[in-house]
Structures are given as C-alpha cells and as structure tokens.
Amino acid sequence: MKVIAFPRIEQGSGASRRLRTAGHTPGIVYGGSSAPVAISLDHNALYHALKKEAFHSSILDMEIDGKVEKVLLRDFQMHAFKQLVMHADFQRVDSNQKIHVKVPLHFVHADISPAVKLGGGIISHVMTELDISCLPKDLPEFVEVDLSTMELGTSVHLADLKLPAGVTSVHGKDNPTIATASVPAGSKADAVNDAAAAASSEEKK
Q1: What is the pTM of this model?
Q2: Where would you tag: which of 37, 62, 83, 184 has the fewest CB atoms within 10 A of its CB?
Q3: Do the strands 2-7 and 37-42 form a parallel or antiparallel pair, or are they unpaired?
Q4: CATH fourth-level superfamily of 99-197
C-alpha cells in the first residue's frame, strides 16, 4: 500500500492545529539509520486508510519528496469525540531486520464445526490478534484460525495454529487460548444436561 506524505517544517502545537485546520494530519517517521522526519498527511486519505485492516499490518510504501521508504504504522491518535486523526507514527523497515508486530486473527469455518453444526454451541474468540516476529518480506496481513474441527468443550491454542513460513509467535505466555467452544447459557442442551444431572442425583438417593 502506498502513502503520500509531505515534509513538515513547522512544529509545535500551534503548527499542528494549523495543519489540521487545513485538512492535514501531523506525523513522524523514525527508526533505521536516518534521523526522525516530521511529516504531514492528507487527513481524509489517512482516515479512510485506517479503516482498512491491511493498513495496520502491512509494509507501506511511503513517498516523501519523491523518495519511497518502507514503513510500518506504529501508532495513531484520534480526537476524543470527533472523527479526526490527531497524529500518526511510522517506523522505517529494514528488509534484513526482523520486525515485531501485531497481526489480526481471521477465524474461519466455525459454521461447519461439530461444536456449532451438531452441538448448537458458540465459539468465543479469546484473542483477536497475534504478536509475531518475522522479516518484512514474510509479514502476513493476518493469521488464519481454522475452527472446522472444534468440538463442544474444546479450545484452540496458539500451538494449534499453522503460522506462515518465516513467522514466529512472540507471546510471553507459552500457549495461550485462542478460541473456545461452549454451549450457550440457557440453551436446550443445558436444560437436557441439567435434567439428566437431576435424574442421576435422584437415583443415588
């Protein structure tokens, strides 16, 4: 994805307010062997780009004064109640250095899993993104979580995921839970189970 940015000479809160009034968003590009560069971006283009999932987890081609650099979006700030992007931070990317970034999880095939199709259960997403490390060329836009074999009462853990080649997880916890399959509270299945438990209790008396 390509991003057009402009060098920002004036800095400070007053200059930033003037930029926003003129329809631009102040930002900064940092990292690598070059010094940080203050930039401005077209606000509307940035606002709409931020709505795209890939913009948050892809290597971006940022053009400044005709020169293109590879960058990652690292942070952005929104106005407390207005649809206004206040600031954006980008980090330069070295093709030979591994990057640490969060990528979204895409859950697929829940509708055909035994838990949902046969058991009438629901699948809860415990995590929605994954911390990974990889070279820029190996960065995936997302990691897929296949739920097609989930049974009621089971969980999908990090170790169950098939990560793309060159990608490793950097989660601190060894094997966190990604998703769980359970029976909704108050469902018919719950009622049947409760009745069975009650009957079993009566028989033991």
Answers
A1: 0.79
A2: 83
A3: antiparallel
A4: Ribosomal protein L25, C-terminal domain (2.170.120.20)
Q: Measuring CA to CA, how many Å separate 100 from each of 13, 71, 126, 163, 171?
A: 31, 13, 21, 15, 11
pLDDT in tens, 94-108: 989 999 999 999 999
Cβ(95)–Cβ(70) below 8 Å: yes
**Cα–Cα nearest to 89, from 111, 62, 129, 117:** 62
CATH topology of domain 2-92: Ribosomal Protein L25; Chain P (2.40.240)
3-state helix, strand, coil in the chain (%, to 5): 25, 40, 35
- Pick from 64, 77, 73, 9: which is nearest to 34 by CA? 64
> Look-up: residue for tokens 């895409």?
106
